[in-house]
Design goal:
Layout lengths: L2 H19 L7 H40 L3 H28 L11 E7 L3 H21 L3 E8 L8 E7 L3 H5 L4 E7 L10 E11 L13 E6 L15 E6 L4 E5 L4 H32 L11 E6 L4 E4 L4 E3 L2 H7 L3 H22 L1
Parallel strand pairs: 4-9
Antiparallel strand pairs: 1-3, 1-5, 2-3, 4-5, 6-7, 7-8, 9-10, 10-11
Helix pairs in contact: 1-2, 2-3, 4-7
Subcellular location: Cytoplasm
Main location: cytoplasm
Organism: Candidatus Aquarickettsia rohweri
Length: 359
């Protein structure tokens, strides 16, 4: 469909919604809320689309006048109008292309972030903890709520696995491109010869599922309680507080083993819902990507996405070939917006390019 035709359809849709909202008595309260949201979502696009078509009309009028008029004064005015309309059209088209990119419905959701130590032994566990703290600080910087769900496999000052729930506006939109293998190159404190070691940690970012997103039948769940195990203490091995939830249709298992059985069950269900929601989204996204091939990298979580080189104070994101030399600031102050912004822009550019090819 031609770009101008898409804009005309949007304006037509917006005006239709406007007409429906002008008489709320004819709409149910549920439909009214849905129509009002759609109307609000289209408002800004409608405004830019209207301006675009107005400028297109002015451009056509100016070109017609240049062809037919014999008066120099009118031709000069038409030439000026043509120049101004062309500039306006270029600017408006770039803005509209971004606005017309199909929105990921999960973008405004919160997220579950899961970090696991990969190859590299204790050094990988230390790096996993470093990443976990980096994202915790990033959440604090953006006034998001960061709730630790579980930390396991404590080694020295590191951990084998850590999970957290991050709540706030646009969390998933900004963190979804962090999924993948993060590699670190540094000299471990235990390395006497000063040799640089390479280790890795994997990051998975899942959109946090809400009840309206996913309905889980109780009959599909097997919930087992068992005794916590740990380093010792009065509580350990005395209460069946740990919870294991198995989603029977998929075989997906989630375990929570902190002191409160009630909290363990709530957290485990939260994680399970998000994992099932992510599986469903992955299935849908694969169908779309098979047709559209619009991705950042492959989107595969096994893909190495970023390298943190401590000796050179360097971070490189391999998907967009972006390198900076502020590693300490990025790690300690969570100054990673330059990567996140660049990845979002790159994703938008690829989708716009695909849309251009489809026209």
């Amino acid at each position: 469909m031609a770009f101008e035709d898409r804009l005309k359809n949007i304006i037509k849709k917006y005006n239709s919604l406007n007409d429906k909202l002008s008489d709320p008595s004819k709409i149910s309260s549920q439909d009214f809320a849905k129509i009002a949201k759609e109307h609000s979502d289209l408002s800004e696009i409608n405004k830019h689309a209207t301006k675009y078509l107005e400028n297109l009309e002015l451009l056509n009028e100016a070109e017609e006048l240049l062809k037919t008029s014999e008066e120099k004064e009118l031709k000069d005015l038409a030439l000026e109008q043509k120049k101004e309309s062309k500039l306006n059209l270029e600017s408006l088209k770039e803005t509209l292309k971004i606005m017309l990119i199909p929105k990921d419905i999960a973008d405004e959701k919160g997220a579950i972030i899961e970090i696991r130590a990969g190859t590299g032994g204790d050094e990988a566990a230390l790096f996993a903890s470093t990443l976990f703290r980096m994202y915790q600080k990033y959440a604090e910087n953006r006034n998001w709520k960061f709730e630790i769900l579980s930390v396991s496999g404590i080694v020295l000052e590191g951990c084998k696995e850590a999970m957290a729930s991050i709540s706030g506006k646009g969390v998933y939109k900004r963190l979804k491109f962090e999924s993948g293998v993060h590699r670190v190159q540094r000299v471990p404190t235990t390395e006497s010869s000063g040799r640089i070691h390479t280790s890795a940690a994997t990051v998975a970012v899942l959109p946090e599922a809400e009840d309206i997103d996913l309905k889980i039948n109780d009959k599909d769940l097997r919930i087992d309680s068992y005794r916590s195990s740990g380093a010792g203490g009065q509580h350990v091995n005395t209460t069946d507080s740990a919870i294991r939830i198995t989603h029977i249709p998929t075989g997906l298992v989630v375990v929570q083993s902190e002191k409160s059985q009630h909290q363990n069950k709530a957290k485990a269900l939260k994680i399970l819902k998000s994992k099932l929601y992510d599986i469903e989204r992955e299935k849908q996204n694969k169908e779309i990507s098979d047709l559209r091939k619009v991705q950042v990298g492959s989107g595969d979580r096994s893909e190495r996405i970023r390298t943190y080189n401590f000796p050179q104070n360097r971070i490189t994101d391999h998907r967009i070939n972006l390198t900076t030399y502020n590693l300490q600031e990025a790690i300690q102050e969570s100054n990673i917006d330059q990567f996140i912004d660049a990845l979002i822009a790159d994703d938008q550019a690829k989708k716009i390019s695909q849309d251009d090819n489809d026209e």
